[in-house]
From TrEMBL:
The lineage of its organism: Bacteria, Bacillati, Actinomycetota, Actinomycetes, Kitasatosporales. It comes from Streptomyces griseoaurantiacus. Keywords: Cell membrane, Membrane, Transmembrane, Transmembrane helix. Residues 247-284 are annotated as: Disordered. It is found in: Cell membrane; Membrane. It is a multi-pass membrane protein. InterPro entries: Surf1/Shy1 (IPR002994), Surf1/Surf4 (IPR045214). The keyword Membrane applies. This is SURF1-like protein.
């Protein structure tokens, strides 16, 4: 009954199923592990943010380069404020406004971008308070350079003079005549009546859309594995039923395996003497 499983066609079906199911299970397990990693990163980032508020500020140089472990840590730096820029289209407390970004010239020669605060409304240099004069010491949460699409950052050009879409060394190096740290700081306490900008989480450390995409892909891969098994059993069942019908001499109409090769009885379609039209019989 099951000898058909040894035919070349079924060998191909069996090999395909045996390869497809483990691959689907592996991919589903991998996507699940990615989701679990993101959940753990979210917990770690939450704990780090809570601990960072209690920790004493550390010198900027000791926290560079910025990574998941140092992002959000409180950093301190000394220097003189330089050029001031505005960062438009930033939301805070469900309102749209702009950041006031001022470059801090440190003793090392590089400039550290410092977000001194947030103001509501359209960007306006007249609204932004001037930076303090003389040497200052800033303390705030260390952040990694932004990428377009992150935290409202824009990569689009054509902004008015004095504005920048993303807080990053790549964007700022073309606007200021000195080297820029590949990091920035948001002050713990905003200057001159502005609202302090809270630190953002590191990339890929929260339960964002990507995390739930991983969870959705997990379900899809396991569904694919189940579908492969279902189709294999369905094909097997149809083949077994066909073999039983063949043993009983019951074949579907038009089946190519039937006698005569067309699912018709042998001799069907051949007119015998009795089936011929009498009018076509010649008269002798």
């Amino acid at each position: 009954m099951y000898r058909f499983l040894l035919t070349p066609r079924w060998w191909a079906i069996n090999v395909l199923a045996l390869l497809a199911v483990p691959v689907c299970v592996f991919m589903g397990s991998w996507q699940l592990s990615r989701f679990e990693d993101r959940v753990q990163d979210h917990r770690t980032a939450t704990e780090q943010a809570t601990e960072a508020k209690k920790e004493a500020a550390r010198p900027l140089a000791s926290l560079l380069p910025v990574d998941k472990a140092t992002s959000g840590k409180r950093a301190t730096a000394k220097g003189h404020y330089g050029r001031q820029l505005l960062v438009p289209d930033r939301e805070l407390e469900d309102r749209t406004g702009f950041y006031v970004l001022t470059m801090l010239r440190t003793d090392g020669g590089k400039a550290l971008p410092v977000v001194r605060g947030w103001l509501p409304g359209s960007p306006s240099a007249a609204k932004a308070p001037a930076a303090p004069k003389g040497e200052v010491t800033v303390t705030g949460a260390l952040q990694a350079s932004e990428t377009p699409g992150q935290n409202g950052a824009s990569g689009a050009g054509g902004l008015p003079a004095g504005q920048v879409g993303a807080i990053s060394a790549a964007s700022l190096v073309n606007l200021v005549p000195y080297d820029v740290y590949d990091a920035w700081v948001t002050l713990d306490t905003a200057d001159s009546g502005m609202t302090a900008v809270p630190a953002s989480r590191p990339d890929d450390s929260g339960l964002d859309l990507r995390a739930f995409q991983n969870l959705g892909y997990t379900g899809e891969w396991f569904v694919f594995a189940g579908f492969v098994v279902f189709m294999w059993f369905r094909l097997l069942r149809r083949e077994v039923e066909f073999q039983r019908d063949a043993e009983l001499g019951i074949l579907p109409d038009g089946d190519p395996e039937g006698p005569g090769g067309r699912g018709e009885p042998e001799g069907a379609g051949e007119a015998g003497p009795r089936d011929q039209d009498p009018a076509s019989t010649p008269v002798r």
